[in-house]
Amino acid sequence: NAGVTQTPKFQVLKTGQSMTLQCAQDMNHNSMYWYRQDPGMGLRLIYYSASEGTTDKGEVPNGYNVSRLNKREFSLRLESAAPSQTSVYFCASSGSWNQPQHFGDGTRLSIL
Amino acid sequence: QKEVEQNSGPLSVPEGAIASLNCTYSDRGSQSFFWYRQYSGKSPELIMFIYSNGDKEDGRFTAQLNKASQYVSLLIRDSQPSDSATYLCAVNSGNTPLVFGKGTRLSVIA
User: Fold this and answer.
1) Given B49, B51, B95, which is nearest A97 (Cβ)?
2) Using the beta-carbon criterion (under 8 Å), do B97 and A41 form an inter-chain contact?
3) Per-residue pLDDT tens for B5-58?
4) Which of B22, B67, B91 is nearest to A101 (CA)?
5) Reduced to 3 states, what is the DSSP secondary structure of residue B19?
6) Tens digits of residue pLDDT in B49-98
7) Given CB atoms, is A42 within the 8 Å cutoff of chain B?
8) Which residue in chain A is spatially nearest to B92 when comparing CA positions?
9) What backbone phi and psi angles, to 5 degrees, belong to A60?
10) Can you tell me the distance from the alpha carbon of A82 to that of A18, in angstroms, rounded to the nearest whole number?
């Protein structure tokens, strides 16, 4: 019973490089989310997908793109990484808006 | 802008005491309320959720909701050092994602 699986767990990039963070859930949830968490800033929503085929911007979308590949998978792409994007990234999913979100283990991303 | 406010702490309590964590929210139409626990270096983990006014108990944890005063609290009875973590409050208002508070850091002293 994996829940929400994120890959990779750790990554170091150089400024300007691109990469995609992967997220998959096996709970048949409709909604999926990407957050970043920085010290003292709490969880900040980057993008979300209410259902398969839809995506919307959250609080801090600049510098990121997302793809809801199918109901299970929701990826986050950094096209040209910047040091300000050094953070811990969490993917989450939920059945609907008023149901709990379940989180993956996170990706620790450092950009030099 | 929908806001969820929590005291950042740290809240220090002795082992065996009751820890009381509070959260206020700005949107009077909020409908669903969640408490998460996050250990250092780990992901948030759901502890409890509450939808109706009043108390909801689960083991050592009690969630209390007062919609008229727009606050939700989490009580932890018989606090243990293993309860030391950051506790996040999250609130849902209609067809939008949860809004998370920044969390309260709890330290239980043995």
Assistant:
1) B95
2) no
3) 999 889 999 999 999 999 999 999 999 999 999 999 999 999 999 999 999 999
4) B91
5) strand
6) 999 999 999 999 999 999 999 999 999 999 999 999 999 999 998 888 99
7) yes
8) A98
9) -130, 65
10) 10
Instruction: Please give the structure tokens belonging to residue A111.
Output: 């950009």
Q: What is the DSSP letter of B51?
A: -
Residue B110's contacts (CB-CB under 8 Å, 6 or more residues apart) are: B15, B81
The conformation of residue A73, written as its DSSP 8-state character, comes to B
The pair of three-digit structure tokens given for residue A50, joined into one six-digit string: 């209410």
Q: In this structure, what token pair is assigned to residue B16?
A: 């065996």
Which residue shows structure tokens 């900040």? A44
**A2 burial level (CB within 10 Å; 0-12, 13-18, 19+):** exposed
Alpha-carbon distance A62 to A79, whole Å? 11
The encoded tokens of residue A80 equal 């040209």
Q: Residue A1 has what pLDDT?
A: 62
Whole-Å CA distances, B85 to A41, B14, B108: 16, 14, 9
